[in-house]
Sequence to fold (934 residues):
Amino acid sequence: MSEELLALNKLSVDYKVKGGYLSAVNNVSFTINKGEIFAIVGESGCGKSTIAHSILRLLPEHNEIIKGNIFFNGEDLNEYSEKQLERIRGREIGMIFQNPLDSLNPVYTTGFQVAEGMMLDNISREDAWNRVIQIYNDVKMPDAEKRAKSFPHELSGGMRQRVMIAMMIARTPQLLIADEPTTALDVTIEAQILNIIKTLRDEFNTAVMLITHNFGLVAEVADKVAVMYAGEVVEQGTVFDIFDNPKHPYTKLLMKALPRRTKSEGRLQTIDGSVPRLTEIRNGCRFENRCPYVMEICKSKDPDRRIVTESHSFCCHLEGEVRNNE
Amino acid sequence: MNDSPSKEFISSCYKNRNFVLGFAMVLSVIVLAIFAKQIAPFSFDEAHPKDILVSPCSKYILGTDNMGRDLFSRIVYGSRITLQVALLGAGLQLVFGVTIGLVCGYFGGLADRCLTFVADLTWCIPGMIMALAVVTIIGSGLTNAIIAIAIVNWASYARMVRAKTMSIKNQAFIETGISFGEKSIAIMFRYILPNIVPILIVTVSMQLPGTIMSTTTLSFLGVGSQPPSPDWGLMVSEGINFISRGPWLCIFPGLALVYTVFGFNILGEGLRDLLDPRMKSQ
Amino acid sequence: MSEAVIELKNLKKYFTISKGFSTKKIYVKAIDDVTLNINKGEIIGLVGESGSGKTTLARVLLNLTKSTGGNVVFNGVNLSKATRNEMKKLRTEVAVVFQDPASNLNPRDTVMNSIMRPLILHGMPKKIAKQNAVDSLELVKMDVRYLNSYPHQLSGGQLQRIAIARALVLNPKVMILDEPTSALDISVQAQILNLLLDLQESFGLTYLVITHDLNVIKYISDKVAVMYLGKIVEFGPTEEVINNPKHPYTEGLMAASPIMDPHDRDKEKYIMQGDPGSLINLPSGCHFHPRCPYVSEHCKDEAPQIIVLPDGHQVDCHKYAAVKSL
Fold:
């Protein structure tokens, strides 16, 4: 039933800087199946957006080195030429960003911009336009016909994000990468957008890679979760694995830092210190300087991936069995 | 770790080729101006009636003019005038432009509308024509020429400062300042101005060449410096009468001017890249 | 009984905008007839979508902008009638921390100068002010070695601590916290929230916390005021408002707020439709009626009056008119 769609195998992204490399993403492996909502969650600067951008080779600077494999439907995107990738972008893998206003062209109507992508696939102008209206209704755009003829600045933030989603699903991609899609929106609008994403998954079996710092979103929609810290996936599993049975000290502490009680029920757990900067990363576990259970070995040796169940694994020296063969 | 922004800035300066080259060129002009007495073999107004219009030779490196004055010495002394123009001109424009820009940007309202209108007006009249008009009213002379150019140019500073002020004044640290009781004048000069300084430095060095050129043009037209001043513009204008017999009379002051202006220009470009990465030319 | 520190009586703040050459002025009612009492030592949460007037309310309290009508009474002093001296004293008694850590401090001032500035402004000699700056830095649990740092050298969490230290330095009675943690990561958010609670307890401070994050409100505040399009539609004890929302808007807001436990996701959820309205084109009658699931003809014609329910809970909805008469 679960068919593999996207598989990252030991993906690393290094930035070349004067006198060395900065490891922005280190040794990340995970698999997204068809029709699955896969959340990558982590604090700012942990490399979650870098992963998303490196999948479509959209990193802004060209001084990065990408190692490892990105298998999409069994083919390694890292070996694709720029031309082959262009065919993947938009058609097979769609992407929506945090700020939809930056991603929309201010001088064209939103409907035209959505139709434009479809016309690339040799669909006539008229058919494309009708389809736009239909998709606008799918994403619950109020007053679809009128909004299709509006320019981006005439729409509210929530409506713009709907346009972005419409633009992406117009070509029915197999994977939708959503990079902080609701961060700039009010909670009420956020709930509406999440609902649309869930409906899409159910209707078109689109897989969604949801990148967020908000555990609330994860709890709300994700099937599987990868928790990132300082460029590494420290723990991954189903959403219930992560919320009910966190194994990595970072995940454990985070779960207690989430404000889900009142102050009369006791204070929140905090994690002292802050995320190391990329320039400060040394050998060993990257969480070592903030970890309450830190041991000697953590400072020198990278922890191995330990498995709890088929779906649940984490990287820590502390407990669990070492997985023998990767 | 605890380097102030200015310290960090200085260390990054060495790496910028434009900045280093421009700085060296401008510095050489400054040295020339300070040590003019020591460098120049003669005084700028010392005439040698026997050596009129001598072409460059070992005694007069750059030749002499129609009154037998040593051209090299005159150019060296002329650097003082050019720098004076640059300093005074920029100073005047800054004081006017920054104050008006701050007040307009911070308070807004009627004063802002009036002053912006005046600034817009100065842009509607060709600068040189307006400067000539001003000089005609207040009389010729170097100082008046500088004032005239300042009257033409202050508006570009005012506009820049106004725009910057408007964007900074809504930031949280300003509102916090007001909430614990800062007065408007302190907000403008303690909070906003320091945050405009980097871009102001860039603007000054980008505007300086223009200021020098305009003032030189006024001198060339005869309404700026008056003879026997060794103003480079005036020297070119006097040399034109002898262009066939003594072409060096126009060429060398002109070259000196090009050198100085070019120096300020690339210094400005270097500073812009250093201080405001977003404005980078690429 | 507890005494009121801040009393808002029928507070109004209208902005005027004129369009083009037409002389007709349009009123933007950012705060429309708000009455609210904040007692000493209480933490009041103020929630609402963007554009609901929350921040304008904070700005009126801070005297950054003049109100159009009504009164703000602070410790018995009416803000609009305060003398110069009273005003100067008021400036020391209300402090503020804004959302964006990066713009909360003057980028050109060292930490030391930023913290000392309010003291020096109110006439304290430099030497004593320096000592006070060090003390308040210790209050927010920051190392004194940061005194000579510049804001760009510090992380978001550190900047927010310094902003709190500066707010505390004048020994204020009331702190206004405008989205104090929404720009921070989860692990840092917990640190700052706990710090704020500790400070509140040890100094008996009164907080007005403005945020759109209901989970934060739930954790930190004693009472919640819900704002919609310039009006406070519901006000009451936190647990009452969150667990037993009375106003349809509060209900929608609570439902939209991300859950913090994936086991809750299957619960039937009411998703409020529509965008937050605009203050420029206010709907007639009850401002909420275009989005309200319980709307009746009456709501479109007549604005509801504030009704105090038997449990001390205030609500601004026609639904409860019947309750009042009981």
The first strand of chain A starts at residue 4 and ends at 17.
